[in-house]
Design goal:
Blueprint (H helix, E strand, L loop, with lengths): L22 H4 L9 H14 L4 H6 L3 H11 L4 H14 L3 H5 L3 H8 L5 H18 L8 H4 L7 H11 L9 H10 L7 H11 L5 H14 L35
Helix pairs in contact: 4-5, 4-10, 7-8, 11-13
The structure holds iron/sulfur cluster.
Iron/sulfur cluster binds next to helix 11.
């Protein structure tokens, strides 16, 4: 584990010298942003603090599996999505096999994921499009992936990063919330966070940031009542607009 860098943040440059891409950050900031070195240390610390996300094991280096699993994961907990994906992949793990299934068959296999009927139809539709327009291959660009039914920016970035192993930043609600709490940036939407991260986060951290922050957000930096008292990066976090969970007071021993 590298020696922790000094938590002393860098000096702010004046708003006039900031790039236009960072204008949203400079408008109302009252504190310096975290230094890139400190952010790197935070990501390395979090990477070592949690077990690997099961999505990685389920879909590693297989863009089609990443695509299907991401669509199934929308508004569905991992504990439900992972076994549902495994049941489906046993029967069909390529576009060719998938389009041969009836929607009802996919529905039964993936139930009880949320919106299982809509997702089953989306999986058939984009699998057919992959066969018709992409030679049965999953494209590796965000723009092409966004043409597939049921695919948004989060899924597209995961397919590029996790499936194809190319540089991509997948920003979901956890990445957006935690980056703002840490004081690494100041943004209003996940889309804005993605654009700022593309400019300031060193590329070696692009593929890891989603994995570690999803786990950190689910287990420690929760949306309400974050567990700052047990957080492995508490000393480096600026806790912007954070109200940590209340701890029960221990009764003094008699
Ligand atoms: S110290 Fe609190 S707000 Fe900061 S990352 Fe940890 S849990 Fe989140």
């Amino acid at each position: 584990m590298p020696k922790p860098p000094s938590p002393k943040p860098r000096q702010l440059t004046s708003p006039e010298t900031q790039s236009s891409n960072n204008k949203s950050q400079t408008a109302s900031v009252e504190r310096p942003f975290l230094d890139a070195n400190v952010m790197g240390h935070i990501l390395e610390t979090l990477n070592g603090a949690y077990d690997l996300h099961p999505m990685g094991e389920l879909t590693r280096n297989n863009p089609y599996k990443v695509l299907v699993a991401c669509v199934l994961s929308l508004r569905t907990k991992d504990e439900v999505m992972i076994p549902a994906s495994e049941r489906l992949f046993v029967v069909a793990d390529t576009p060719e096999k998938m389009v041969r299934l009836a929607p009802e068959t996919i529905e039964k296999l993936v139930y009880p994921v949320g919106f299982y009927k809509t997702k089953a139809q989306s999986i058939i539709d984009f699998s057919q499009k992959l066969l018709d327009e992409f030679g049965g291959q999953v494209p590796n660009t965000i723009d092409e992936l966004l043409t597939l039914k049921g695919v948004g920016r989060k899924t597209a970035n995961l397919v590029v990063g996790l499936g194809h192993g190319l540089p991509a930043i997948c920003v979901d609600t956890h990445v957006h919330r935690i980056c703002n709490r840490l004081g690494y940036l100041q943004t209003k939407t996940p889309e804005e966070t993605e654009m700022v991260l593309r400019n300031k986060l060193p590329q070696p951290y692009w593929s890891v940031i989603n994995t570690v922050m999803v786990l950190h957000g689910q287990q420690t930096c929760k949306p309400i009542g974050p567990r700052c008292d047990v957080c492995p990066v508490e000393t480096l976090c600026q806790k912007v607009d954070v109200k940590p969970r209340a701890l029960k007071k221990l009764k003094p021993a008699k």
